[in-house]
Amino acid sequence: MDFDLNEEQTLLQDSIRRTLADRYGFEQRKSYMASETGWSRELWAQYAELGLLGLPFAEEDGGFGGGAEEMLILAEQMGRALTLEPWFATLVLGGGFLRHGAGAALRGELVPAIAGGECLLAFAQVERDSRYSLHDVQTVAKRDGSGWAITGRKGMVWHGDTADHFIVTARTGGSRRDRGGVGVFLVPKDQAQVQGFRTVDGQRAAEVAFDNARASHCLGEDALPLVDRVVDEAIAALAAEAVGAMDVAQAMTVDYMKTRTQFGKPIGSFQALQHKAADMLVAIEQARSMAFFAAMASRGEDAAERRRDMHAVKVQTGRASRLVGQLSIQLHGGIAMTMEYAAGHYFKRLTVNEATFGDTDFHLRQLADMGGLIAA
After folding, report:
1. Residue 17 lies in a domain
2. Is 153 in a helix, a strand, or coil?
3. What is the mean pLDDT of residues 31-45?
């Protein structure tokens, strides 16, 4: 199988990398983080000009017709720069629900606005006691005339403090942990009470409360399969983002080992530390292979097989992220723990990435319960 990029994909990769190299230096990133929104609106508009915000959407909906491979390229480059903008919340999560669950009219309304940088989405799914379960939902959706009223609280809503619309999971029937009766709804921001905060890795998230909030659209009254599919695609994007972050963390560490001296020699000349750097490289290449695998598997129509694949992706990527992040800190020494040096920020992003939609231990248990990656 050929994993080389074609000409158009190479141009896309180079375009994103040049833009981020010019606009996402470490000091620039800190200034974006300190801004009112916690990210750069100006740079978001530049993403729109480059066509990045329309990348995953079909051309007939106002997008650019990109696929899983193009999103892998985007995610990896965003990971390399530790970007703060809401590309994951809007394009991967919100975009996934629009592509797989919305009708043509709704896609025609929102996709051009997203592609133009004028509309932001956020996925409100996590609840206080739900842990990593997608079907543990206490938020309630009740019929209200011709529409739905949503009541409940959601936590850790990525970029919820700047979202224009929330995509909300709410129970339309059954009990709290039933897999049936989980609906998906589009709720405008003026129907929610939002409290934003900064996450440990510098991104933005929010606690969101709905009190008889009026949903503008229902994407499905019994839509857990839709949620599963979108989250599977999100896991593929997270894997690619982690590879980008690990690449830079490893390169920074090797450069530091070449210049930091101890006992009159660069520490990179010590064989034990060379072995650690080699371990990092091996882990990254394994994770890169899994990111390619995830991009292909995310298109699968067999939900059980796709979920099995994504459990495996999460396990391998999570293990690699932890190893690379920890070794990067250890080989840098104390300087890596300071806010003024980038290595610690990469470690934080990798740590948050690993926990998003389930950490390594969670997915390993799920994979074991399914009989492993290769079904008997």
Report:
1. yes
2. strand
3. 97
CB 166 within 8 A of CB 124: yes
Q: What is the CATH number of the domain that holds 147?
A: 2.40.110.10
pLDDT for residue 37 is more than 70: yes
pLDDT above 70 coverage of the chain, percent: 99
**CA neighbours closer than 13 Å in the CB half-sphere of residue 158:** 21
Question: Do the beta carbons of residue 122 and residue 163 sit within 8 Å?
Answer: yes
**Residue with token string 């072995």:** 275
The CATH number assigned to the domain holding 45 equals 1.10.540.10
The position carrying tokens 């629009």 is 98
* Global pTM exceeds 0.70: yes
Q: Using the structure block, give the residue that is written with the tokens 């990656």.
A: 373
Burial of 265 (0-12, 13-18, 19+ CB in 10 A): exposed
| Whether 304 and 362 share a structural domain | yes
How many residues are recorded in the chain?
Answer: 376
| Residue 374 belongs to a domain | no
Q: Same structural domain for residues 308 and 234?
A: yes
Domain range for 15: 7-119
Q: Rounded to an integer, what distance in angstroms lies between the CA atom of residue 232 and that of residue 68?
A: 12
